[in-house]
Amino acid sequence: MYGPGDVHVEEREDPTIVEPTDAIIRLAATCICGSDLWPYRGAEPVEHQVMGHEYVGVVQEIGSAVRTVKVGDFVVGSFWASDNTCDICRAGYQAYCVHRVLMGTLGTQSELARIPLADGTLVATPGQPDPDLIPSLMAASDVLGTGWFAAVAAEAGPGKTVAVVGDGAVGLLGILAARQLGAERIIAFSRHADRQALAREFGATDIVAERGDAGAEKVKELTGGLGAHSVIEAVGTQEAMMQAIHSTRPGGHVGFVGVSHDVAIPGDELFMAGVHIHGGPAPVRRFLPELIQLIWDRTIDPGKVFDLALPLEQAAEGYKAMDQRTAIKVLLTV
Amino acid sequence: MYGPGDVHVEEREDPTIVEPTDAIIRLAATCICGSDLWPYRGAEPVEHQVMGHEYVGVVQEIGSAVRTVKVGDFVVGSFWASDNTCDICRAGYQAYCVHRVLMGTLGTQSELARIPLADGTLVATPGQPDPDLIPSLMAASDVLGTGWFAAVAAEAGPGKTVAVVGDGAVGLLGILAARQLGAERIIAFSRHADRQALAREFGATDIVAERGDAGAEKVKELTGGLGAHSVIEAVGTQEAMMQAIHSTRPGGHVGFVGVSHDVAIPGDELFMAGVHIHGGPAPVRRFLPELIQLIWDRTIDPGKVFDLALPLEQAAEGYKAMDQRTAIKVLLTV
């Protein structure tokens, strides 16, 4: 990305093993993330920067210290490389690994990528996947893992009513996650017919078109005046965060994964709300083994969030489609 | 309280049963809360208002619908009257009961008090308490229950390092709670020798005098660079809240019970911190049976936070002592 709105696909030098814990993978697919739109729209600084942090592919080369992944393995990894052995990783917070490396700084919208801390970061699939599984495995790398984390952070589960703020790929997969985790009722906030349809397919039982406090009021109406037990916030704006907090009953849980932009939570409102809040960059690595198995067994089909697939060379078109909301999420084939 | 800094003790009409679910209690003691200092200092509006929301005493009269408390019972209640039967109460959030009544609006810095929803609100002690147990039972009504909730919200427990922001009565009793809940290490932020001594007596293993980010840095130094697992915020200011968040390791828990004043939590900092936040007015009723038993068995002695006892008539002196920090917490004998 040369600058806001300005995406080029160009030849670069092949990545090489730098640390003995690195692996080089040949990507089977990559994709464009909702968070890539922040710099694209000028809301985050960007200047001639490699892009992409989602990836699936085949291991092409490993460093001398790599033990658990082999050349030829089909692997999925997350947007934070992590050692998976430090105290923070072992507590399930691999996105905060003491040795973490942000994959976005290396770039995975490419044919080849260097993956640091390969043993901790990469999870191999049970075998070479059928081609139709690739989009779902791709989703596991970020949007599914992030939606799943949001649902776990919101403590979605049996007997719970879950509300989901945000009908982008992460919000939609938060619905899928809440359903898998056993939620009784799932309320999706959405105004777009195509996203509403996918929300219902993933498990939403109710759709609310209202936003902000009007949306929160609607959730209260649907829940005997109390609010939802669990609310997922997958947008990152002030309105979305307050809508999430106000939609949650006292003692309930907000799981937030929208990358915060100009959000400030008033302390007195949080104090009076009595909700739990937890979120941030998802520790996708925690969930990868489970998610890969669910996809492998064809129990879930999160790849449906990709409603446009383009060859990598047409990445600029993909950014445009997501920016203009003509696509929910764009898969880039390599 | 006629206005900021202006406290009078005067004769008022005796309270009477209004609803059939009411009880009238004769107070054995009452006390002044840290939160009473906000209006006293002019930080909250106040105009000729009854004061007090903490109470222990003997049931003198009950309404026709009261079933579980009897005339003559010695009882402890919380600052929110609650039915203890609604969905919110049953989830353990009695401070948000759908029928809740704020005791501060009725006033318990008095000889007699009307307690709404007596069956749900009041917990009887196993018998008439020895006089030396009264301060501890009094503490259970608010400061102990609040400190306990903060420790539970922060998920203090075995193997955990807990840091406590705030060395007032609630913070000190948060230390006691963390100790009882099995915390391995307890770091108290304090600059006052007398409070440091009580903190150590209640179970603090480390004292940190630094505040704000310097204080958070110190906690990180003490925890291998990671931060505490659990942090209690018992102040309610911006500095205290951010100190708490910055002292917590990713995936850790902040339990906040300081009444928020002009606090705004930046969304991006919360996002990047990866902590859990939970707090608000404590559902003290959830913990009362357990706390009363611990006090009755003389396992804990939370009454030590009262370092000044005055007769009710001298309430104005008590407010002054707490305002000027010459007392941690003032017991008013009735």
Describe the 3D structure:
By secondary structure, the first copy, chain A, is of the alpha/beta class. Chain A folds into two domains: 23-142 and 283-333, Medium-chain alcohol dehydrogenases, catalytic domain (Quinone Oxidoreductase, Chain A, domain 1, Alpha-Beta Complex), CATH 3.90.180; 146-279, NAD(P)-binding Rossmann-like Domain (Rossmann fold, 3-Layer(aba) Sandwich). Chain A is built from twelve helices and 16 strands. Chain A has helices at 37-40, 87-90, 118-121, 134-140, 143-153, 169-180, 193-202, 212-222, 238-247, 267-273, 284-296, 315-323; strands at 23-31, 55-62, 74-77, 80-81, 101-102, 112-115, 123-124, 161-165, 185-189, 206-208, 228-233, 248-256, 264-266, 276-279, 306-311, 329-333. In chain A, strands 1, 2, 3, 6, 7, 15 and 16 form a seven-stranded mixed sheet that branches. In chain A, strands 10-9-8-11-12-14 form a six-stranded parallel sheet, sandwiched between helices. In chain A, α9 (238-247) links the parallel β11 and β12. In chain A, α6 (169-180) packs parallel to α7 and α8 runs parallel beside α9 (238-247). The model of chain A has no long low-confidence stretch (mean pLDDT 97). β13 (264-266) of chain A pairs antiparallel with β13 (264-266) of chain B, so a sheet runs across the interface.
